[in-house]
């Protein structure tokens, strides 16, 4: 409960809504990775990586089980399902591995170019659907 209060005070729900909307626009090619990366400058990197890691996990789970109950929160259910149906398992595993590696660098306080890091994440994310 204390973490929830803290996250609420930080405006995390609003930040997540902004990111979810951005991911949807990215996949529909209505916004570029660069625009989104710059627009998300005030959102903590760890939070972003946690969400993308969670979403990649949900994609893998759905690919293996086809269980719609396991698609996660309502705001990303259709996106997770779409990506699960249109992406290869190998690509999803690769992006999950990459996200975890970058998250570890952020946690170890590596000096990273935030915008380039997010652009790389978003370009890979946009490339999930399609051929291997």
Features:
DNA_pol_III_delta_C; DNA binding; 132 residues; 7 helices; 71% helix; Zinc Finger, Delta Prime, domain 3
Outline the structure in words.
By secondary structure, the chain is mainly α. Helices cover 71% and strands 0% of the residues. It has a single domain (2-126), classed as Zinc Finger, Delta Prime, domain 3. The chain is globular.
Can you describe this structure in just a few lines?
Helix content is 71%, strand content 0%. The chain has seven helices and no strands.
Question: Which secondary structure elements does this structure contain, and how are they paired or packed?
Answer:
Layout: H1 2-9, H2 12-27, H3 33-39, H4 45-65, H5 77-86, H6 89-107, H7 114-126
Shape: globular
Q: Based on DSSP secondary structure assignment, what is the total number of beta strands?
A: 0
* CATH architecture type: Up-down Bundle
What value does the Rg take, in angstroms?
14 Å
Count of individual helical segments: 7
Low-pLDDT stretches: none
């Amino acid at each position: 409960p204390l973490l929830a209060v803290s996250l609420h005070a930080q405006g995390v729900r609003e930040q997540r809504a902004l990111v979810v909307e951005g991911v949807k626009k990215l996949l529909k090619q209505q916004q570029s990775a660069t625009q989104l990366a710059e627009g998300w400058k005030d959102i903590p990197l760890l939070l972003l990586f946690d969400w993308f890691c969670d979403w990649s996990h949900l994609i893998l789970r759905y690919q293996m089980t086809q269980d719609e109950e396991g698609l996660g929160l309502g705001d990303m259910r259709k996106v997770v399902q779409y990506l699960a149906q249109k992406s290869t398992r190998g690509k999803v595993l690769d992006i999950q591995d990459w996200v975890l590696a970058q998250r570890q660098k952020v946690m170890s306080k590596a000096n990273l170019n935030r915008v380039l890091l997010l652009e790389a994440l978003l370009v890979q994310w946009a490339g999930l659907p399609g051929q291997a």
